[in-house]
From TrEMBL:
It comes from the Bacteria. Residues 50-249 form the Xylose isomerase-like TIM barrel domain. Keywords: Isomerase, Manganese, Metal-binding. Transmembrane segments: none annotated. It comes from Streptomyces rubradiris. One of its GO terms (molecular function) is isomerase activity. SUPFAM superfamilies: Xylose isomerase-like (SSF51658). The lineage of its organism: Bacteria, Bacillati, Actinomycetota, Actinomycetes, Kitasatosporales. The keyword Manganese applies. This is L-rhamnose isomerase.
Amino acid sequence: MTDLAAVKAALKTQAVETPSWAYGNSGTRFKVFAQAGVPRSPWEKIQDAARVHAFTGVAPSVALHIPWDTVEDYAALAKYAEDQGVRLGTINSNTFQDDAYKLGSVCHPDAAVRRKAVDHLLRCVDIMDATGSRDLKLWFADGTNYPGQDDVRARQDRLAEGLAEVYARLGEEQRMLLEYKLFEPAFYTTDVPDWGTAYAHCLGLGDKARVVVDTGHHAPGTNIEFIVATLLREDKLGGFDFNSRFYADDDLMAGAADPFQLFRIMYEVVRGGGFTSEVAFMLDQCHNIEPKIPAIIRSVMNVQEATAKALLVDRDALAKAQAAGDVLGANAVLMDAYDTDVRPLLRAVREEMGVDPDPMAAYARSGWAEKIVAERVGGEQAGWGA
Ligand code: PSV
Ligand code: MN
Ligand code: MN
């Protein structure tokens, strides 16, 4: 039997971080479809993130992306976020948009380009000091397109050297989260293509370096929950970038493509003792054709639903069936939890938290969408590439 009160209590502590870039305009390499009312600055992105938290109760922080979210005074931005009811979370670095990075950033063959990239990462840690952020999330677009283009092994050495310099700059409470991605923009080799490479670098660096699992960054058919179980077992799982994929790095709403996979991942998190603040639950999504704020609210709710189902797994019954070699019985225990309609439970949890039981409807009624369309006119709209 699962303890329903404990499940509710756990759900109330969940925190899903939303990404500043999901609030801005984004698109594919073919077209960016501009939406009315989209934030024109980091300050306005924070306003929108605060709405997501207000209506869900479980999205208390917003991740920044530097330099997209450049401001003069980061402490003031942190204070502004607090006044809005959220806080600034993970700092994401960006070493992929300058011309200098055509052949890579921290793995580039030219030491001057590597210096520029590492300096940017160090600057990100300065920003973390000002914002009070715990985590620096590193994703590198580095790699090669053609066999022989560069020395693949030397690139690993350059990567290790750059990471070590940044790691040494971290404060006591700060962490480095290293994100892997199978391919894109590089197509032949990617310098951090998989969890094993990320794990090896993190292991070499030390306890403050952890792997981040972006659910969209694997080959089709990859058993992501196995990776999660392994990283948790090694105490090296730093967090997630949740999103959905059908084909590659699609960045669609979490839980939209494969809610069963999200449940299986969350089960391993719960099973592995990862349902703590040590594991950061983040979204990494782009809403190109759908309204952004409701899409982010929906994504947060999808993560909550997967979590609720994972918490509902009758672990005693599962352990018994597993120990008895009862294949079908064990599978049935897991499926019983997955097949539970957790929406009434989550409505009750929200009511107890003082949040509207139906966040989507509450947001629609709030008038925020109309207000930002009316007020946010003119200026540069901020988003991917801004
Ligand atoms: C690029 O693939 C990417 O989507 C990575 O997942 C990063 O986390 C994100 O961009 C932000 O840099
Ligand atoms: Mn990501
Ligand atoms: Mn990605």
